[in-house]
Amino acid sequence: MKIVDNPYKKEFVFDLYSRIYPDFKDYEKITKKKMIEKIIEFYSDYNNIIDICTYREIKFLKRIANGEKIAWDDDRFEFEKDILRKKMLISHNDSLEYDFYDELKDSILLALSRVKMSEVKKKTELNEFLVGFCKVMGNFLIYPLIDMASSLFNIDSKVVFDHVFDNKLFNYYVVIYDKYVETFDEETPIGLYRDYYYVEDELDEERKEYAISGTQTFDLKQYINIFYDDFNFDNKIVKKFYKELMDLPFFGFSALEPIRVFALLNKDREPLKDSISNVPALAHVSLDDFFELLDKAMDEMPSGALNGMCPREYKEKLKEKAEYEFKREMEYTGQKNACLGDDVAKSFYNLYFSLLEYVNNKYHIDTSLKKIYKQEYLDPNQLMPIIEYLFEDKEKIIDAYIKDNPHNFNSEDLEKVSKFKQGIRGMFTIAKYEEDYTALLASDRVYMIKGLNSNIDEVIPYHDIPCIVTTSLFPYDGVIIYDGLLSTYPISMGTSFAKIVEKEYNEDMKYYHL
Length: 514
What we know:
Layout: H1 10-20, H2 32-43, H3 46-51, H4 55-65, H5 78-86, E1 91-92, E2 98-99, H6 102-114, H7 117-137, E3 139-141, H8 142-153, H9 157-166, H10 168-173, E4 174-181, E5 186-193, H11 200-210, H12 220-229, H13 236-247, H14 252-265, H15 270-277, H16 288-298, H17 311-331, H18 342-363, H19 380-392, H20 394-404, H21 411-418, E6 424-433, E7 438-441, E8 445-450, E9 467-476, E10 479-482, E11 487-488, H22 495-507, E12 509-511
Parallel strand pairs: 8-10, 8-12
Antiparallel strand pairs: 1-2, 3-5, 4-5, 6-7, 6-9, 7-8, 9-10, 9-11
Helix pairs in contact: 1-2, 7-12, 8-9, 13-16, 19-20
């Protein structure tokens, strides 16, 4: 039994060829014969056979190697038979029993004689999660995925990193490429489940439309089930639906792919139902009960568009969010005296901008920006590098500023500048707006700060908090203030995050002075 004698379609061969060769040639630029030669060449290295198979697949190959007769219609090994056939490591012979191709037999037997099953098992457990997660999500940021796997399996992140980029099995299912991500305003590595490449743009749009932060409650068993079976049969509703789908005459298997895609995108199911209704073999079958079950089952299927939540969980989250927002709305009265006022704010800006001008001119940070002191309508983006430089060695820089006193401030003003040495710069969470203060949550404390000219709830609306900001805090006029410059991040925070912030705000120590 030879590969070259099997009447594979070119599309089938190309699917495998393009999965195992990252630098594969375009479909039109390579023949089926050449692709088969490249596949045989790939498998001639027995390590590649080991690396592209799961623990279950290796055990199945051992059964065949040991002479066990497994018929093509034996339903004990559906996953193994299907995937090993797609990988062209097995085919059925004239007796309709599975066997190895002549061109690959020696390499497979060598692989089976040298394989370390304990190592394969560990890699399989890692791949079950990694691939199962990508299958649920459709696509995902690689570095957070590595961090999740590292934490979940207690493996060094460098080991997971190498696995993700080098492992043949992971890369059989998932392609990694650099993609521009608007949130980060840069290209970053993305893992795309290969079967969903044709709906990736639609998935991104749907995910943006729902704008859900975070993922569903972590369920490792679900990812494992979906890796092997496409569906989570631990869910009784999904299992019942699958059985009834398979009982439909001449149709079940052809519906699996569109159902998976509709679940991934959380699309309106009416077009799916219409396409099922129009199947000729089902023309005289009553489908009302089946469609009712379809809706219930698909409400239980995790969706990439919903960041891994199933539609039922999403509806529950929406209800929870609405109730939480209503509660917050009823409690919120608005800020009334949470800023210093124009006169005090003006005195702070005079001192602060004088200091920033001194830093910029002395250390040549932005040579295009000559004047900062007593200037209006300055570009915050130009000031940020100067502020960052100040905080790298603020004690030394402020001492030098006070000594040089470039704008001839009196001793009282210089004392205020001296206290800037107590300032802190970092990332904070705006946790709550009180009548007289804005609460900024840090790692283990809450800073109760004042705005400058205006209350901070006029800068960042109440409905947008909690939100993460980067800013600088200083002691001034007996309170903590921020420097008037807030860098925000276009990240939507969910209700769960808001509740965590609320809990920490209630429990952490409040600081009214630096």
